[in-house]
From TrEMBL:
Residues that span the membrane, as ranges: none
Species this chain originates from: Pistricoccus aurantiacus
Protein name stated in the entry: Nucleoside deaminase
Pfam families tied to this protein: dCMP_cyt_deam_1
Matching CDD domains: nucleoside_deaminase
CMP/dCMP-type deaminase domain ranges (all copies): 1-107
Alphabetical list of InterPro entries matching this protein: CMP_dCMP_dom, Cytidine_deaminase-like
Entry GO MF terms: catalytic activity
PROSITE patterns: CYT_DCMP_DEAMINASES_2 (PS51747)
Length: 153
């Protein structure tokens, strides 16, 4: 729960910085946090998702064996781009606070435009990755951030 709560904090940081509310933490096989990031797409680069950043960091700093033992904790289920990066780099388990299905429902309720890429479940893109989520209670905090974002803050 500590890492998941940190993901929610990172999502809030992203929101407060003018970004979409997403945050992620990469932990090793012993549960030690190694790297974290938040969404940074307000820069104009729509690929600056935290999950992609974690995959890139892991590829540069970890062995394939140690990458396979990791867990990525994240505020929202990986988009297809991030799920592919996760799979290509060989990271381990994913635990997410809110699902792509939830996000799609929330955006629809808010009248927000759908994302430019279809929000497919992680296991549709990378079927061998163990996945857990959503996390009841914490997902409501993420929903609230999306509501604030699409209600004009």
């Amino acid at each position: 729960m500590q890492h998941l709560r940190r993901c929610v904090e990172l999502a809030k940081e992203a929101f407060e910085a003018g970004d979409e509310p997403f945050g992620s933490v990469l932990a090793d096989g012993d549960g030690k946090a190694l790297f974290e990031d938040r969404n940074r797409i307000a820069s104009g680069d729509a690929t600056r998702h935290p999950e992609f950043s974690l995959a890139r960091w892991a590829a540069e700093h970890m062995t394939p064996e140690s990458r396979a033992k990791t867990t990525v904790y994240t505020s929202g289920e990986h988009c297809p781009m991030c799920a592919a990066a996760h799979g290509w780099v060989g990271l381990g388990r994913i635990v997410y606070v809110s699902s792509s299905e939830q996000l799609t429902l929330w955006l629809g309720e808010l009248g927000a435009a759908p994302p430019p890429v279809r929000p497919l479940p992680i296991q549709t893109i990378a079927p061998d990755i163990p996945v857990e989520g959503p996390i009841a209670g914490l997902d409501e905090e993420i929903k609230h951030l999306h509501q604030q974002l699409h209600a004009g803050r």
